[in-house]
Design goal:
Strands 1, 2, 3, 4, 5, 6, 14, 15, 16, 17, 18 and 19 form a 12-stranded mixed sheet that branches. Strands 20-22-23-21 form a 4-stranded mixed sheet. With 560 residues, it is of the alpha/beta class. It is built from 19 helices and 25 strands. 35% of the residues lie in helices and 19% in strands. The longest helix is centred in the first third of the chain and has 21 residues, at 131-151. 55% of the residues are buried. Strand 14 (257-261) and strand 15 form a beta hairpin.
Length: 560
């Protein structure tokens, strides 16, 4: 049997017209805004007509700490959604939008894989409906208005040395992390140090994803703090009268994007904050609409449960009043062997010793979900042909000791059919499990320092936190300004439970270094920068862009 790439599978599987998918989901034509034949936006005003309808069950898909071996979280999310549909449950999927940075960088696309994909995958992985571009435009409009205000006389007294708002672009470009702008004479602006973040790390992305309607979007935009005056007072986007124009750029981006899986399960793909440097969840708007339309909603949070799931629960669920009914933790035998010290070239060989050493990483994520957050969970083993029965049995026994079942997932090769065992366990957890013990990592009333320490000690398993003098000074200022009750959003490497990407498995006896803290008043959380994490990634030695091409008919190749 010849091997087909993800893009070849997607291009060779017929799609249904998006109007038919909308009808299946229960979205009336009056709420549908078509973007061609296979994509549409759903007007958020549909929530007003659905407000009396009972919510469906929310299923969160998370994973172990990622490795170069791959885990397949999005693939599992899509396959699980298709499997639940096959078992007669009215199901929708709610995912994040991919960023062009990873698509052309090291990670590749984010539309699932094999026979468990959302389509049209080329559109989703590239410009899609333009949401991320709109976010970049709104971000950079605010940046332009800041510098123009200073150039035109600086009535607000903004200190150019204390501007915290950075420009952004949706591409990995390390060259733009730190720049000097406004050079070459007075007519070109006021010279100052500046820099770029990747668009998905912009506070505008977080604001869009956490807004509940257009009015709430404008309120959040108004609250954004862009810097400080010479006498140390915060300056907001509202002070610059920028929020209305920014909202005008974002009004269509706020509407969730409707697409389909290869098996025609309706899917929202909307919003795309990274989980290592942002809050890592799709929009509240998409999730809430999906819950009103479906019996089951399958959603995912970025990277491992220490990042995406923690932020999904401590930020998104707290703000939106959500409570997952069950959690799926995705793992692979191959990745766990890497956590146990096996080399990438050796992963096809049975290695129970490396697996035994790597399994504690999975067990820590299970403990976080079941003990720290109080939610029922199942482990989904994304099966590879080289996995041996002895390896699978070892994982199963270790998980059962914690009271958690294991289900094999073969959705990459078999689509929804390969996810039916996992879907049955999810249904069992929903019908027999108990999420009444659901709780957050910390309370709103705790200090910012205490919240950070709670995440590090309870979720990462660290011994404590070392705060830089700059971080302590900023925390004091944030609390003085009245933002001490906000949740915290820790920016941390995705490759380790610690802030050191080289510490694999389940590290012990470590402390986390916090080098800086800033308030995202519009989003409604405090960003905490740990270790060496950067908000503008770079491209790898061999970027994925080198393999992407398009032929004379417009057919794209090389996306994965």
């Amino acid at each position: 049997m010849s091997f087909k790439s993800d893009i070849e599978i997607a291009q060779n599987t017929p799609m249904e017209p998006i109007e038919k998918i909308a009808e299946k989901a229960g979205v009336g034509r009056e709420y549908l805004e078509l973007y061609g034949n296979y994509k549409a936006k759903v007007n958020y005003n549909i929530l007003k007509d659905l407000e009396d309808r009972e919510d469906g069950k929310l299923i969160l898909v998370t994973a172990i700490t990622p490795t170069p071996a791959g885990e397949g979280k999005t693939t599992t999310s899509v396959g699980l959604g298709d499997a639940l549909s096959r078992l007669g449950k009215k199901t929708m999927i709610a995912l994040r939008e991919p960023s062009l940075g990873p698509v052309f960088g090291v990670k590749g696309g984010a539309a699932g894989g094999g026979y468990a994909q959302v389509v049209p995958m080329e559109d989703i992985n590239l410009h899609f409906t333009g949401d991320i571009h709109a976010i970049g435009a709104a971000n950079n409009l605010l940046a332009a208005m800041i510098d123009n205000h200073i150039y035109q006389g600086n009535r607000l007294g903004i200190d150019p040395r204390r501007i915290t708002w950075r420009r952004c672009m949706d591409m990995n470009d390390r060259q733009l992390r730190y720049i000097v702008s406004g050079l070459n004479g007075r007519t070109n602006g006021v010279p100052r140090e500046d820099g770029f973040d990747i668009t998905v790390a912009s506070e505008i992305m977080a604001v869009l994803c956490l807004s509940t309607d257009l009015d709430n979007l404008k309120e959040r935009l108004n609250r954004i703090i862009i810097g400080y005056t010479y006498d140390d007072k915060p300056v907001t986007a509202g002070d610059l009268k920028a929020a209305g124009a920014m909202a005008a750029l974002l009004k269509d981006a706020l509407k969730p994007n409707l697409v389909q899986t290869l098996e025609h399960t309706p899917a929202f793909v909307h919003g795309g904050p990274f989980a290592n440097i942002a809050h890592g969840c799709n929009s509240i708007m998409a999730t809430k609409i999906a819950l009103k339309l479906s019996d089951y909603v399958v959603t995912e949070a970025g990277f491992g449960a220490d990042l995406g799931a923690e932020k999904f629960i401590d930020i998104k669920c707290r703000i939106a009043g959500l409570r997952p009914s069950a959690v799926v933790i995705v793992a692979t035998v191959r990745a766990l062997k890497m956590h146990g010290g096996a080399q990438k070239t050796e992963l096809s060989e049975e290695n129970l010793e490396a697996l035994e050493k790597g399994i504690p990483n999975l067990l820590k994520h299970i403990e976080n979900i079941t003990e720290q957050f109080g939610l029922p969970a199942v482990v989904a083993i994304n099966r590879f042909p080289t996995d041996t029965e002895a390896e699978l049995k070892l994982i199963e026994n270790k998980c059962r000791a914690l009271g958690v079942n294991v289900a094999l997932s073969e959705v990459w090769a078999k689509g929804g059919e390969g996810g039916e065992a996992l879907a049955r366990e999810v249904i069992r957890l929903v019908e027999e499990g108990d999420n009444s013990g659901f709780k957050f990592t910390y309370n709103d009333e705790m200090s910012i320092k205490a919240k950070i320490e709670a995440v590090v000690e309870k979720i990462y398993g660290g011994d404590g936190v070392d705060f830089s003098p700059a971080a302590l000074k900023e925390i004091a200022k944030i609390e003085e300004m009245g933002f001490g009750n906000l949740p915290v959003c820790l920016a941390k490497t995705q490759y380790s439970l610690s802030d050191d990407p080289k510490k694999l498995g389940r590290p012990r006896n470590f402390r986390v270094s916090v080098r800086n803290v800033k308030v995202s008043a519009g989003a409604g959380f405090v960003v905490v920068l740990t270790g060496d994490i950067m908000t503008m990634p770079g491209l790898p030695k061999v970027p994925a862009a080198e393999s992407i091409d398009v032929d004379s008919t417009g057919r794209i190749s090389g996306l994965f």
